[in-house]
């Protein structure tokens, strides 16, 4: 994940050949990829928030679910069939990861930023131990208030994000409930907000910046392989 801090007007547009999340980018680090579906794929995170020796997982378990379409939001994927199939498959991946993590005593907390000024939409999922999950909602609400964001709790709907063309930040709490922050154009939103809040919840504030958590490539490979092993029984893209 690259965070570009330059003013928007100075930014060069990112096309698929240089996009960090496009499979067609020849520079893409292949060793993070753990599953490829029809319309989306899953990678482990570069600079993961949890530690590699996370209890019961033996890997950080921090993943990204990424659409194959190079689009800043799901709602702006031009072809309606691709859009619908992408949304369906990304939910399926998230539910599969949820099931896998539940077996190991974790809730899959996901978050995403959907903004038309973004580059390539993705969902991040981070395992939160069952013992800490009670703090997730209240901590997000507290941090949102502190930052001046208005957060509302909603039910997750099947077409979430599809017909909804406004900019938003969303937290999946691992059940049917989500937290939703509307990002109207005047809201200056911290791109690292989700990670920072989860770093507090997990008691890992020193790991809130992904750049200070970047691993050696051999550890990245090891963690991706371990995640693949854990996910294998839940990965619907594999033959039974
Ligand atoms: Zn892209």
In words, what does this structure look like?
The protein has 240 residues and is of the alpha+beta class. An eight-stranded antiparallel beta sheet has the order 1-2-3-5-4-7-8-6, sandwiched between helices. The protein has one domain (14-234): HIT family, subunit A. The chain is globular, with a radius of gyration of 17 Å. The chain is built from four helices and eight strands. It has helices at 80-102, 134-147, 193-201, 217-231; strands at 33-36, 40-44, 63-67, 106-114, 123-129, 151-155, 168-172, 177-182. Zinc ion (ZN) binds at residues 16, 19, 21-22, 70, 120.
Radius of gyration: 17 Å
Number of strands: 8
Helices and strands, in N-to-C order? Answer: EEEHEEHEEEHH
State the name of the first-level CATH class.
Alpha Beta
């Amino acid at each position: 994940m690259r965070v570009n801090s330059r003013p928007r007007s100075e930014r060069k547009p990112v096309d698929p050949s240089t996009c960090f999340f496009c499979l067609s980018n020849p520079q893409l680090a292949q060793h993070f990829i753990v599953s490829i579906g029809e319309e989306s794929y899953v990678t482990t995170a570069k600079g993961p928030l949890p530690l590699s020796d996370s209890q019961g997982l033996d890997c950080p378990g921090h993943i990204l679910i990424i659409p194959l379409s190079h689009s800043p939001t799901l709602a702006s994927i031009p072809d309606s069939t691709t859009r619908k199939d992408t949304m369906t498959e990304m939910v399926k991946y998230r539910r599969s990861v949820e099931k896998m993590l539940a077996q190991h005593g974790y809730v899959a907390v996901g978050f995403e930023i959907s903004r038309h000024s973004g580059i390539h939409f993705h969902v991040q999922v981070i395992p939160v131990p069952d013992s800490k999950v009670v703090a997730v909602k209240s901590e997000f609400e507290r941090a949102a208030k502190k930052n001046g964001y208005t957060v509302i709790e909603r039910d997750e709907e099947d077409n979430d994000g599809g017909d909804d063309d406004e900019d938003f930040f969303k937290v999946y709490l691992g059940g049917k409930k989500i937290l939703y922050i509307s990002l109207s154009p005047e809201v200056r939103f911290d791109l690292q907000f989700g990670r920072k809040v989860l770093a507090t919840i997990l008691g890992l504030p020193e790991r809130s910046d992904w750049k200070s958590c970047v691993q050696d490539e051999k550890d990245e490979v090891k963690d991706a392989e371990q995640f693949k092993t854990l996910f294998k029984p839940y990965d619907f893209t594999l033959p039974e």
